[in-house]
Amino acid sequence: ATDIIFREREFGDAVYLIVEGRVVILKEDVKVLYLEKGDWVGEMALLDDEPRSATIAADTDVLTLKLLRKDFDTVLESYPEVRRALYRILVKKIRLDLDKQVKAIQAQEQVKQDIRRASEVQDAMLPSGTLTQEELRLTGTCIPAATVGGDYYEHVPLDNNRVALFLGDVTGHGFYCGLIVAMAKSCLLTQLDNDPSPDAVMTALNRIIYPFGPEWIFMTGCYILVDRETKTLSYLNAGQNHPLLYRQLTGELIRLNTT
Q1: Gyration radius of the chain over CA positions
Q2: Whose CA is closest to 66, among 27, 13, 26?
Q3: 3-state secondary structure labels for all residues of 184-214
Q4: Burial letters for 167-200: b for 16+ Cβ neighbours within 10 Å, e otherwise?
Q5: Exposed/middle/buried for 72, CB within 10 Å: 0-12, 13-18, 19+?
Q6: Which residues does 17 contact at the CB level (< 8 Å), separation at least 6?
Q7: Which helix (H) or strand (E) holds 65?
């Protein structure tokens, strides 16, 4: 058990008939198939003179008959019944390969459908349209680098003529990013109903996001609270790019540094 019978890309000099035990076929260190008593392994390299296409290892203790190339050719020429048996084995392997390819294609299509659905769900989590309140207009768009990404923004009207704005970005791309975005959205909207102040919102988000997953998964975020009555803007930035405040009357561009 665990012994390597031959390795991928080696020159093939023999074919092996499994007498007892079971072997595993490894393709780039991935277990592809198991073969047992009565199966041949290694005949492909002798028939097409190409390097071994896979690695064969003993999965259990294994006993094999080893036929070198010259003996293999002699047996095929001298014993038609052996030749027919080999053909049957080759046909069986072709059928197995075809079944595996069909299943792999079906699995890939399922993954693609899941990704499309995840992308649709993520699109639905972003605000639709523009939020307009008298002199205030908030709008945004998101074009992810992958089908499912970690970019997130939100704008929510609050009571007392206030509006909340959030920008966030999760490390990397993929399903786990969408999961963190969903967690952030749920936490954000819940916290806004209780206390929309920057300190309370970002503390709540950090409490939910920080413990999630390995250390390399994190989310940057900037939260902005606009008070239209007092004409003030309060913000808290956690690793997000610094927002720029443009004063239209004076043409002044102010970088909102992290405090």
Answers
A1: 31
A2: 13
A3: HHHHHHHHHHHCCCHHHHHHHHHHHHCCCCC
A4: bbbbeebeebbbbbbebbbebbeebbeeebbbee
A5: buried
A6: 38, 39, 40, 64, 65, 67
A7: strand 63-68
The pair phi, psi for residue 25, each rounded to 5°, is -95, 125
The single residue listed with the structure tokens 């490894």 is 26
d(CA 181, CA 173): 11
pLDDT in tens, 46-92: 878 888 888 999 999 999 999 898 888 888 888 888 878 878 877 78
How many Cβ atoms from other residues are within 10 Å of residue 102's Cβ?
A: 10
Tokens of 86: 């080999």
Nearest to 144 by CA among 165, 114, 123, 161: 123
* DSSP code of residue 73: H
CB 86 within 8 A of CB 44: no
Alpha helix locations (H) across the chain?
43-48, 69-78, 80-125, 175-194, 198-209
The total number of residues shown for the chain amounts to: 259
247 residue type, one letter: R
Amino acid at 10: E
Sheet holding 4-6, edge to edge: 4-6, 55-58, 22-27, 30-36
In this predicted model, what pLDDT tens digit does every residue of 106-153 receive, in sequence order? Answer: 888 887 787 777 777 777 778 878 888 888 888 888 877 766 777 889
Claim: this prediction has a pTM higher than 0.85: no
Indicate whether 242 pLDDT > 80.
Answer: yes
Q: pLDDT at position 146, please?
A: 66
What are the tokens at 249? 């009357």
Task: Compute the distance between CA of residue 256 and CA of residue 245 in angstroms, rounded to an integer.
Answer: 7
